[in-house]
Amino acid sequence: MYTNLSSCVKYQNVIIVNGWENNVKNNNFICCFRLKNENNLAIVSNQKLSSAWAHMPLRRIQYKCSVPEGNIWIDHVSIVNDLNATCPEDLSYFVKVSLPLMSKGSNIAICSLISYRSQDAALLVEWFEAQRLLGVNKIVTYTQDLNSDAIRVLDYYESIGLVHVIHEFDMPKRDHMFDDSTAGFQLNPKLHITTWTPYNRSSTLFISKYLNSTSSVPDRHKYVYMPERVVIGSTNIHEFTACEGYKM
User: Fold this and answer.
1) Please, is 29 exposed, middle or buried when counting C-beta atoms within 10 Å of its C-beta (0-12, 13-18, 19+)?
2) End-to-end CA distance of the chain
């Protein structure tokens, strides 16, 4: 699970917990907060979002825990689906609360799709280097049963500060696109088909060899947004909710 404390002023007293869940019929759950003084604080909530594909053993779940007002410092959080249960005492059942990174100046970060199993290590190198040329400062990626060659590539780019890996589990001009009232904007991707005849046979790079593409695919759109201007917990790969006073 990954946690985040919202940076949007209106939603700053909310902790989001992302993870996986079996089919639990009860919509209510307990947010267990481990405080800095090592005491537990339990808050009942019913704010959660879930989605699943057919035949998936687990469904993706997002829990939203409202933080009570007052001078308290929450170090860790845990989720309990049984309302008759109590919060665990063992810290291994908790995850640490992570504050969103605040950036000074213009930076671009990418949250990539999961890297798994037979992902080609050479293509990863090409893709990371292309993002660096486009001005990307940080890439967050996830791994699941990834092969050792690809893991070594991720380890290298993590060592130089470009990539943040969560294990197991032509770019627009930044200053022009993000004015003082814009939270984010939509990108309409195209599909590059590798079974078509290569556009540039002489290229040694995979990404420049297959330049022919489809038209923009309407159901595959992605977003670029500024984290401090969106409601944390509202974002997924295809949408986000802007904070009050911002547009997209």
Assistant:
1) buried
2) 29
Q: How far apart are CA 93 and CA 142, in angstroms?
A: 21
pTM of the predicted structure, to 2 decimals: 0.54
Nearest to 128 by CA among 207, 70, 16, 181: 207
The region, left, alpha or beta by phi > 0 then psi within -120 to 50, assigned to residue 218 is alpha
Q: CB atoms < 10 A from the CB of 208, how many?
A: 14
Main-chain dihedrals φ then ψ at residue 33, nearest 5 degrees:
-100, 130
3-state secondary structure of 206: helix
Render pLDDT for 126-143 as a digit per residue (tens, 0 to 9). 999 999 998 899 998 888
pLDDT tens per residue across span 157-184:
999 999 998 886 633 444 556 677 888 8
DSSP assignment of 70-104 equals SS--EEEEEEE--TTS---S-GGG-EE--PPPP--
Phi, psi of 155 (to 5 degrees): -60, -40
Sheet-wide strand order for 29-35: 40-45, 29-35, 74-80, 95-96
Q: Taking phi first (over 0 means left), then psi (-120 to 50 degrees means alpha), and beta for anything else, what does residue 93 get? A: alpha
Among the listed residues 10, 14, 18, the one whose alpha carbon sits nearest the alpha carbon of residue 140: 18
Cα 128 from Cα 136, distance rounded (Å): 9
